[in-house]
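> agent: user asked for a holo structure of the chain below bound to fe (ii) ion. Plan: (1) validate sequence alphabet, (2) canonicalize SMILES, (3) run complex prediction with ligand conditioning, (4) return tokens. Step 1... ok. Step 2... ok. Step 3 dispatched.
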Amino acid sequence: MSANASLPDLMYLNGFGNEHETEALAGALPIGRFSPQRVNYGLYAEQFSSTAFTAPRASNRRSWLYRIRPSVMQGDYEPYVGNHGQLCTGPLAGPVAPNMLRWDPLPIPATDVDFVDGLTTIVTCGDAMAQGGMGIHLYAANQSMGNRFFYCADGEWLLIPQQGALLLRTECGRLLLQPGDIGVIPRGMKFAIDLPAGPVRGYVCENYGAPLILPERGPVGANGFANDRDFQYPVAAYEDVEGDFELLCKFAGNLYRAPIGHSPLDVVAWTGNSAPYKYELARFNVMGSVSYDHPDPSIYTVLTSPSDTAGVANVDFVIFPPRWMVAENTFRPPWYHRNVMSEYMGLIEGIYDAKEEGFLPGGSSLHNSMSPHGPEAAVFDKASNAELVPDRYQNTLAFMLESRYVMQPTPWALATELRQKDYINCWNGLEKKFTGRDQGAR
Ligand SMILES: O=C(O)Cc1cc(O)ccc1O
Ligand SMILES: [Fe+2]
């Protein structure tokens, strides 16, 4: 068991996008073929395709699942209306104002709410039906899903816990996520989320586009940033239980439910490269300036969903982890900035260096395409006058979801009391300092 006695100590398979194979019962995996006439143990073979059959080999993702019942063993879907939050899908209707926006964290619900019912969408971009863009959901929940199972046909889910542990029970096995970890669940994979250590809060990026991959390293070489070996996949674990259960799904922007007479997490063995995985953000190997200037934040990219244009992401997932700051004769916080890419930010822990006030763990900010942003006034003054000794940034873990597509706040996001209507005032006090005199700064 791990340090917290209520948390399971799970085994994992290491390696990003590897052709993994795992069996919960010895001999359950066919050898030398995927679909033998009869599968051992009376299992059914089912292929799970996450990319088109004909996607190039380097980007092709699929797995073979050997399961107690094939996935067709379920009832018809009917609309599901239980969602306690407000789950939305891009594109949303109406105009998008370019205002800079910021929100306080969601409260933990006062009534019983599980993970799926506790989702509230804050922004979306692109178009789920066209398989581009993403939705960003906040979650706050206090109940395990138990025998309510879910899958999302609209996109891959990147889970970013901010508070509390998530036990992901998936078709491929179990993953434990704690704050500081991230988890990725392929589009369409069935799962349930239990809460082994109390209430939870965090963020979900529903990636409508190409599956997340590791970014190129370029001249950095063969190691560094997020290393492939640190991505962890589950070992096969199956549930052989029957009952009056519920299969929920999100499809083409709406939630549905179907009755199901058994746990769909009944995969006894699987092999392939499309499976859920986790990554501990503390393992990120941070690159940074050891001479001068604040580099572009792309050096902190953990995962990227490419678009059809090289270097222009559908979604980049970027973190700002603890690290040393040593740059000389440099304004060390992020510079003032206008960006063609749209930037959503969240905070997992501590304080973010550009915003020491008002950007809280569990909170959010949105700086849309070409909307100006940068350090608040107090940070500008502090950083302009700081003694530039080596400084270790500790107790900090912010992240950014960046996209080529304009991000549209949901009606909830604009109306909620959690929105800080005075956010723009954080830049008050950046008065004119221009004197017209040469002050000798170089
Ligand atoms: O705070 C932000 O807006 C994110 C960000 C961080 C950084 O280090 C450089 C540019 C940038 O947009
Ligand atoms: Fe920015």
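> agent: step 4 complete. Summary for user: The chain has two domains: 77-265+274-281, 284-423. The CA atoms of residues 335 and 374 lie 6 Å apart.
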